[in-house]
Amino acid sequence: MTNYRAADSKREEFRKYLEKAGVLDALTKVLVGLYEEPEKPNNALDFLKQHLGASGPETADVEALKQEVTELRQKVEQLSEDNTDLKAKVGNLQQYEPPSDEQALDS
Hints:
The chain contains five helices and no strands. By secondary structure, it is an all-alpha fold.
């Protein structure tokens, strides 16, 4: 009988620890989210892992990365335009070059 009370005491202590640490709330929220999913995922364990994982990247980090992506896309667009312009200029300049040896032999 004493063993039973000791085990109950340890369980209660552990439950209080989990509750204090916020584990019970987090688990409850994730399980409720899974329950409320209209289409249940094929792998419930992956769902739990995904939703229990770290809260994700900091909002500031995400915003900084979004800004960087936007800037890099603009740079790529500008470089593509510059490349097109340079190709057109090269094409225009080639008409002023003397014929190469191969072209002279063909004539």
